[in-house]
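Can't paste images in this forum, so I'm doing it all in text. The chain is below; anyone willing to post the predicted structure tokens underneath?
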Amino acid sequence: MSTPVSSRAPVPGSRPAGILDRLVPVSPQWCVPPRKAERFSWIQLVMGVLLFLGAQTASMFLVLITGSARLNDHGAVVFLRPDATLIMAVVGAPIVVIGYWLLVRYAGGRPVIELGGRGAALRELGVGLGVGALLMCAVIAVLALAGSYHVVDIGWSAGILGGLGAGISAGFTEEILFRGILLRLIEGWLGTWWALVITSVLFGAAHLGNSHATAFGAVAIIVEAGILLGACYLLTRRLWLAIGVHIAWNFVQGGIFGSDVSGTGLGRGLIEARFTGSDLLTGGAMGIEGSIVAIVLCTVAGLAVLAAVHRRGLIVPPSWRRPAAPSSSVVGDGPPRVMNGSAPGARPAARPESR
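Text version of the structure:
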């Protein structure tokens, strides 16, 4: 059964906090309104999707007119130069960040806590970058030990910038859409579990439009990345941890190790590599995201973060199972509230020991 939302204090005599508890503290400002979803939630949903599509369209238009990409016979974008993704990042990331801030601040009528917390933002972004890099290094290490990853050459390549652009572009635009907009709002209606399932499926399906994407690769992204990135947002109720994981995930696999990224057709990175073995092991044209190794390692990591979410009592029940909202309360007006009645930003008192 889902646990009501609260900010749990450690119980005296309980086991020591794990690494996620120490490095990525939960935002005390997070709240879930009783019964009612966030103010103008449907407008936020529609405008958020349009914001993402607008940023993507502007980015695609620019890479097409500069000759950095072209459309194939099926209408999918084929990158001709690795710098195409860097152009997309420079254009798309600022559009979605500014647009999201304006949307939540004026339509939602509340502080934009998903992008807030200066100290926490840097800390969580740094942790996310480290986690994403570590996961991709672990996948490559297993493939190398299995004899499926071979280094051909090492040196500067434009693919390094391509991998960086793919990381920044997807890290900001996709996380703001799938976690900042979809997961946040669906969770307000249907609760955490349904929101995580729905957004993971949509996230994987969205990658089917890539030029070298496969159905199996999309399923892999649903399981490994959908759970992990969703859990990163749920743990902090800010986007920085998920953005960091996503940026490093794309950059390290493409810009460093020379794997394709999500079937986009990007070339070599710092390392020119050769993959041997079955597509199930190497990921094939999808890149190492489609590898069974990545599925296992990254899914385990995602479940570990999700366990931390559950342990802290941050699983949100569906709206019909929450306490009724006071008649005088208006969702989105005033500062955020927490479910246990504490003042915003204040930490709850520790539970007294039983005698």
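The chain has one domain: 32-321. The chain is about 55% helix and 5% strand.
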